[in-house]
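Consider the tokenized backbone below.
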């Protein structure tokens, strides 16, 4: 079992930056790939970024590519999403997720989810 807790969300002006963190419990965190997803009001949950268990492979959605960077520190059981040049359309609840045998962009394939952290970008 892995429990995930996100933090780092908040209110920021357009063009600003935030770093989200995802703290994981359990010694097996390093065995799990991680992903970040987001859900805006009235919209479906969408993929944002993925990082493999070792950290060697990353993927990004086209909407955040070049503005976001996903990393992880397995010694601290923590994953991160650095978001720069934020836009109002980035406003959403951001969730981290983890799993062993996953399809990176498919939310249904992740086994564990955090409770989410709100990111609001004002224009």
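A designed sequence for it:
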């Amino acid at each position: 079992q892995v429990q995930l807790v996100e933090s780092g969300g908040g209110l920021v002006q357009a063009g600003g930056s935030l770093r989200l963190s995802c703290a994981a419990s359990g010694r097996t965190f390093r065995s799990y790939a991680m992903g970040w997803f987001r859900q805006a009001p009235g919209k479906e949950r969408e993929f944002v970024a993925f990082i493999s268990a070792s950290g060697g492979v990353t993927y990004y959605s086209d909407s955040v590519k070049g503005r976001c960077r996903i990393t992880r520190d397995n010694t601290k059981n923590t994953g991160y999403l650095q978001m720069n040049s934020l836009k109002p359309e980035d406003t959403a609840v951001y969730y981290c997720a983890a799993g062993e045998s996953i399809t990176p962009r498919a939310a249904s394939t992740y086994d564990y989810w955090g409770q989410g952290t709100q990111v609001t970008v004002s224009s």
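The chain has a mean pLDDT of 96.
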